[in-house]
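Hi P.,

Sorry for the delay on this. The queue was packed all week, but I finally got your sequence through. Input first:
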Amino acid sequence: MSFFALILLFIVLGLLLGYAAIRFKVEGDPIVEQIDSLLPQTQCGQCNFPGCRPYAQAIADGKAQINQCPPGGEAGIAALADLLGVDEIPLNQENGVEKAKLVAFIDEETCIGCKLCIQACPVDAILGSPKHMHTVIEAECTGCELCLAPCPVECITMEPVASTLALWQWDKPDTSQQQADS
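Then the structure:
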């Protein structure tokens, strides 16, 4: 009998939670979602925000400029300007400079397994255990460089992402001449 009472209680609580989820649903701001989708998702903090989502929220609230993301570069600024209907502005050099996409590489001979790089990685792209060699999951690494500073033996280097057919893109056209003719 108590078994059926528990099942009845779980059903009632489930229905109550389902109703509450529908009744008190909090809608996200669609512009924040759109801005966040244009950001590179490196979670590097170079924009002075703890990640891409808080930076997107700050842009939507008018508390941050669209030019604070070095990993997004000029293409990211152009996409954000187009979305928001504002003028493009140059990348803020105080936040960093635009670079080619990099990926972390750990020299396995030098690594002492201190775990400091694992703790610093915002996207969990580094694997390893204490006092054993660590390695980087290249597909997950965003190239944020946050793992470099905490490494006591400097066994981490940043290397350019290997160009493959999957990553290849057309060069951007030079529009400076077209704009000068206008």
